[in-house]
Amino acid sequence: MNELRYVYAVCRPFEAALQADLVGVGGAPLKQLEHGGLVAVLSRVPEADFGYEPLRAHLEDLDWLTATARAHQAVIAALTTVTCPLPLRLGTVFRDDSGVRTMLEDEGDQLRELLARIDGCVEWGVKVYAEPEAQQAPSEPAAAGQAASGRDYLRMRRTRQQGADRLWARADSFAQELHTDLTARAAATRLHRPQNPELSRATGRNILNGAYLVGRSQSEEFVECVERTKDQEPGLRVELTGPWAAYSFSDPNGDEEEAW
Q1: Global confidence as pTM
Q2: Coil, helix or strand at residue 41
Q3: Measured distance between the N- and C-terminal CA atoms of the chain, rounded to whole angstroms
């Protein structure tokens, strides 16, 4: 059976040992391939699953994709405890060890630059959601149904819409201020597109979807800053995730967000 090389991340050489029972995709053992002062963390995978055409087909299989993504993330998370890995995209494969070495050689300068940027840092995610339902009094739906006239009904609808408009404006101002505060505490930031609620299944409208590259030694202060904002504004929800490997900062073509 032909085997390909599945690469999870590129790191600087590190001496700390990974957990003994850590395995990669499909339960395969991990290997470190060093070249030019860089280390590629990889495992072997069957070409029958990870060749170009089979992989395209598998990406339509949600169960397969979920299992592979979990295995991929588990390796990255383990690496994050011992070094600052540069995560590669899910399904990054090469024909053989020589192909991996060629990648490290050809992209070495860029990889070293990215590793220098994230050195000593982790990524935190911060989201702000506006929830107009939380602002609506429990009696409002009933009152709307008991309106004495069409004019009363329209007036109540207009009042609710004006309340929602005020919430969106307040949410935008709150999110902008929070992002500015967090940016001052981060080495780099990324503003992602607001999440689609149908895909994320999160309630409310996503106003802020930010990623922040923060030094490990500054992370406690960063987390405390976010925690202080929770429950600060009625109808707004703040969510913090992390610490993660620097996924949002591993793309050399990604533009840094410095303003709202």
Answers
A1: 0.81
A2: strand
A3: 52
Q: How far is it, in rounded angstroms, from Cα 183 to Cα 188? A: 7
Supply 130's token pair: 């506006």
Q: Provide CATH code, domain 121-249.
A: 3.30.70
The H or E element containing residue 32 is strand 31-35
Interhelix angle 97-106/108-118, nearest 10 degrees = 70
**Residue at token pair 């979990």:** 70
* Alpha helix stretches (DSSP H) within the chain: 47-50, 52-58, 62-80, 97-106, 108-118, 140-145, 150-183, 197-200, 219-229
The token pair that represents 106 in the structure block = 């050809």
Q: Which two tokens stand for residue 50?
A: 């990870």
pLDDT digits (tens, 9 = 90+) for 87-113: 999 999 999 999 999 999 999 999 999
